[in-house]
Amino acid sequence: MSLFTKAVVGVTDTALVERLVTKTRPGKSLARRFVAGESLDVAVTVAKGLNGEGFVVSLDLLGEQVTDRESAQGAVAEYEECIERIGDEGLDANISVKLTQLGLNIDPGLAIEAIGRLAERAQAVATTVTIDMEDSRHTAATVDVYEEAQRRHGNLGLALQSYMHRSVDDLTRLMPLGGHIRICKGAYVEPREIAHQSKEAVDAAFVEMLRMIMASPDTLPAVATHDQVLIDLTKRLAQTRENPFEFQMLYGVRPTLQRELVDQGFQLRIYLPFGSQWYPYLTRRLAERPANAWFFARSVFGR
Ligand code: FDA
Hints:
By secondary structure, this protein is α/β, with parallel strands linked by helices. The protein has 13 helices and 8 strands. It folds into 2 domains: 1-34 and 286-297, no CATH class; 36-277, TIM Barrel (Alpha-Beta Barrel). It binds dihydroflavine-adenine dinucleotide. Dihydroflavine-adenine dinucleotide binds at residues 132-133, 159, 161, 182, 184-188, 224-227, 248-250, 253-254, 271, 285, 288-289, 292.
C-alpha cells in the first residue's frame, strides 16, 4: 500500500476531518461525483439513466461496520425495498452489500440470515446479490458466508481482492460454485504479512486471477478495474472465452472509458452507491488517486 494511501487514510480517519467533509459544501460536492445521492428515489433515477445509456448497474446502499441490531435490520429492509424497486421499475440492476452492514460484527448468524433473505427476494425479480469484500478482519467470514449462500441460493457473487495473498486460493475454491466473482485490486490498508504492498505485485496477482477466471466456464467473471493495461488484457482473453463476462467500474471514475467500452459492445456494470453514510466510501476513493485528494484538500482547507 503506497505512502500516499496511508497518509490519506490517516488524515481522513479523524472525527474533525469527517465533520469538515460531511458538513461542508465542498465535501458534499466532491461526494456527489462518486455517489448517486442520499435517497433510493435518486439512485433509481440515476440507475434508469445509466440503463438508458447502455450500462447495467449494481446498487450499493452505503453503510458498514454496524454495531446494533436495529441498524442491521434497517439496512436489510432498505435493501428489500431496493430489490422491489429493481423489479417494479424493470431496472437492469443487482445489489452490492457489505456483511458488516448486515450485522456480521454483532452476530454472524444475523448476516447469514440477511443474505438468505436478500438472495430470495432477488431471485423473485430475477436478479443477483454481490457481496463486497471489506478489510481483512472479515475476509474469512465473508468467503464462508458467500460459499454457503451460493450453494443454497445460486444467485450470489463475491468480490475478491488481488492484494490479499489468500485470494488465489479463495478463487480456486469458489470457482466451481458457479456464481459471479468480482476481481478487484483491494481498497483498504493491509499489513505486508497478508497482502501485497507494491502496485507491481498487486497487478501481477490480478493478472493471475484474471487468467484463471476467464478460463473458467462455470463462473461469471466481473472484471472490476479502471486500469487500461488490465482492461486490454481482459479484451484479449475474451477473444477465446465462449461464456459471458462483464467489466465493472465505479460511478464517477473514468466515465469516458466506460462509454468507450459499452460502444465497443462490452457489458459494463456501474457500481452505484447511494445513502447518507457516504464518508468511508469517499475516503477510499480519495486514497486511490492523488488528484482527488488534492482537489478535496484545496476546497475544504483553502489554499
Ligand atoms: P488503479 O488504482 O491502478 O487505477 C487505474 C486508473 O484508474 C488510475 O490511474 C486512474 O486513472 C483511475 N482511477 C482509479 N481509482 C480512481 C478514483 N478513485 N478516482 C479517479 N480515478 C481513479 N475494493 C474492495 O476492497 N472491495 C470491494 O468489494 C470492491 N468493490 C469494487 C467494485 C467495483 C465495481 C470496482 C471498480 C472497484 C471495487 N473496489 C473494491 C475498489 C478496488 O479494489 C480499487 O481500489 C479501485 O478500483 C481502484 O483500482 P483500479 O483497479 O481501478 O486500479
